[in-house]
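ok, trying the design again with the full structure, not the truncated one.
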């Protein structure tokens, strides 16, 4: 069954004529015909164990079984994606700035990859950091069709310990059923909890959290019933790359007995912020540098679901310390995410100071009654005009959340800088995904330096499917 988003994008692609250019073209080239410098990524079905049961999920693996890709800045991103599923798919390189046609959004950057076919990608890697890859076809992302995409650079000293922690929310219920039940359940008569104009700048509504009741929360495909134990060297630093690949769930990353320095968000450096707990919205990434104490010990690194006690995570194991069971519930509920940390972050390499050439005002709107989510009161469809930009412009997006849910807003093909929260201007973090909490105004700025037609959307999967989606087009 196609999601509403897939159907809309399919209709959109059928009525658009694209200019001739090089892009990821589906084909059926055999692996032996390609040089060794091309990395093969297989999109395939796999089994994991969740809560003592076998779960059939999706994944992106290299031929040796390695998930995703680790590479280096300055190299070319030369990748072939083989679709081994019995359904079409297409992979988005979240946070990278490829040519438009290689971005991986069906109907906007190109068609999906048919079952048994392949697509090739080739573009330069101009910056490093912690990124990820995921399906943009239908609701496949909910079936764990995602993987890390790590680009090492000069910030990573040779021999430095590092570990990637990929967070995910999991349900045994098929995603199409989850989406249908959301729309059906919320359509029942009753008070509306989110609608256009429901919030204003003087009255911040109580947030509505966690639309979906998940069966489990995963860190590197495992629950706390059997968490991953990551061996670390006592007395040495370790870089934690935390990726929130969840579809609908935000967390607070809790370092427990450890203290860390947040040194990058969404791949880009910030002035270090010390702490033991850091918020992470859907699709965001945190780079946290930790000094492992000397001596044998076990250090849980946990992700606590916002608004609840449920948690997942991994164990950092130093020396010969015995590993003990970690409870799957925290002692106290995790609060809702706020913009407190965001307002403190400062980019180490901010955008050059410049007045905006173009400003787009974007209201994040929606109605829990019927589960319709929208931008400027309009659920996306093929008739909605794109947000226009011109190459060379400095563009500002003024985001106002008029709903009771937080929305992590993601712009494809660009990075932006957070330059204002609720009227206070500052030189904030460089990101690709910004959380806009209920009733708040956040302004981001970017340079229009990657011509094409790009997606801009809420990264909550079912909000995106329901219409909180737009496009940005160069004119």
């Amino acid at each position: 069954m196609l999601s509403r988003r897939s159907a809309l994008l399919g209709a959109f692609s059928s009525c658009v004529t694209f200019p001739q250019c090089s892009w990821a073209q589906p084909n059926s080239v055999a692996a032996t015909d390609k040089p060794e410098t091309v990395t093969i990524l297989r999109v395939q079905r796999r089994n994991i164990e969740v809560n003592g049961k076998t779960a059939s999920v999706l994944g992106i693996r290299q031929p040796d079984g390695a998930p995703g890709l680790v590479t280096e800045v300055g190299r070319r991103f030369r990748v072939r994606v083989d679709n081994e599923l019995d359904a079409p798919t297409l992979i988005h390189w979240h946070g990278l700035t490829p040519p438009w046609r290689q971005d991986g959004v069906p109907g906007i950057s190109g068609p999906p990859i048919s079952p048994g076919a392949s697509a090739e990608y080739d573009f330069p890697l101009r910056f490093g950091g912690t990124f990820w890859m995921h399906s943009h076809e239908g609701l496949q992302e909910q079936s764990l069709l995602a993987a890390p995409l790590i680009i090492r650079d000069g910030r990573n000293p040779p021999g430095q310990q590092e570990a990637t922690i990929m967070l995910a929310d999991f349900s045994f219920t098929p995603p199409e059923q989850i989406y249908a039940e959301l729309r059906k359940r919320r359509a029942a008569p009753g008070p509306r909890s989110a609608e256009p104009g429901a919030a204003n700048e003087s009255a911040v509504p109580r947030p509505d959290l966690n639309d979906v009741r998940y069966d489990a929360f995963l860190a590197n495909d495992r629950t706390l019933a059997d968490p991953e134990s990551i061996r670390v060297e006592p007395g040495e630093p370790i870089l934690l790359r935390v990726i929130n690949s969840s579809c609908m769930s935000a967390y607070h990353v809790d370092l427990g007995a450890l203290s860390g320095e947040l040194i990058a968000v969404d791949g880009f450096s910030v002035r270090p912020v010390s702490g033991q707990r850091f918020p992470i919205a859907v699709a965001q990434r945190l780079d946290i540098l930790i000094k492992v104490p000397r001596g044998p010990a076990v250090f849980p690194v946990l992700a606590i679901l916002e608004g609840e006690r449920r948690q997942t995570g991994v164990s950092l194991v130093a020396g010969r310390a015995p590993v003990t069971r970690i409870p799957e519930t925290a002692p106290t509920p995790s609060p809702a995410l706020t913009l407190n940390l965001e307002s403190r972050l400062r980019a180490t390499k901010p955008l050059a100071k410049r007045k905006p050439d173009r400003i787009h005002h974007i209201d994040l709107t929606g109605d829990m009654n019927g589960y319709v989510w929208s931008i400027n009161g309009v659920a996306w469809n093929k008739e909605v005009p794109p947000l226009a930009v011109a190459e060379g412009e400095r563009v500002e997006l003024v985001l106002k959340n008029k709903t009771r849910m937080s929305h992590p807003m993601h712009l494809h093909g660009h990075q932006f800088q957070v330059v204002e929260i609720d009227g206070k201007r500052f030189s904030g973090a460089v990101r690709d995904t910004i959380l806009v909490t209920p009733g708040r105004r956040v302004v981001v700025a970017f340079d229009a330096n990657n011509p094409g037609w790009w997606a801009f959307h809420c990264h909550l999967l079912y909000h995106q499917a329901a219409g909180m989606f737009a496009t940005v087009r160069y004119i």
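Keeping the full-length input from now on. The chain has four helices and 31 strands.
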